[in-house]
Write a structure and sequence with these properties.
140 residues, mainly beta, seven-stranded mixed β-sheet, two-stranded antiparallel ribbon, 9 strands, globular
């Protein structure tokens, strides 16, 4: 699943490297599932996120174990080092088309996001998981 930097993260990166403004780095990164294709201008409050009763964003500590060092160049790539596991669906959630990294458990700022290679229907009883190494974001 390839991903790209969101508009918020693009501005924060530019402000960091040109202006020396340090962004607030989250201790925990949250992953949201969306019923729509990836939108680089989406906000944490508006990304067509799943709203089913048992759904919640998956939380990962923002560490090198969960996000190993970036590799490569043109583009540089970063992958998830651990499975991203969501709560078990107690109802049908719909078809997830994309996923987003955010800095908050609700609303918040979108950092990166991308489309699934194949949209994933999530049915009651499923435990949606994004396997380690498969949510790849790029910096180019």
């Amino acid at each position: 699943m390839p991903g790209n930097k969101n508009s918020y993260a693009q501005r924060a990166t530019l402000d960091l490297w040109l202006g020396g403004q340090l962004p607030s780095v989250p201790a925990t990164v949250y992953v949201a599932l969306s019923l729509s294709p990836y939108d680089p201008a989406a906000t944490g409050a508006a990304l067509d996120e799943i709203t089913a009763d048992s759904y919640a964003r998956a939380a990962l500590a923002n560490t090198l174990a969960n996000f190993p060092a970036a590799a490569g160049h043109d583009p540089a790539l970063k992958t998830n080092g651990a499975d991203i596991v969501f709560p078990a669906a107690t109802t049908d959630w719909g078809t997830a088309q994309s996923a987003y990294y955010l800095d908050a458990a609700a609303a918040g700022n979108v950092l990166y996001g991308g489309n699934f290679a194949e949209p994933a229907p999530i049915l009651s009883g499923d435990t949606p998981t994004i396997p380690a190494g498969s949510f790849v974001v790029s910096e180019d």
